User: What shape does this take?
Amino acid sequence: MSAFFDLHSYTDVVMHADSILQRIEDGSMPCDLMWSDQQVALFADWLAAGMPE
Assistant: This one.
């Protein structure tokens, strides 16, 4: 995963979705506050659903 990508960009998030999920699951992202289990599950469900825009 590139060190820099725009989380406000659908294209960037889709390109890095697997890595983002891995990092939010292990707690290394975001750097300021861990996501709740519900937030992680929501992102994982979005990814599994084909990442609809």
Q: What stands out?
A: Residues 37-48 form the longest helix (12 residues). The chain is about 55% helix and 0% strand.
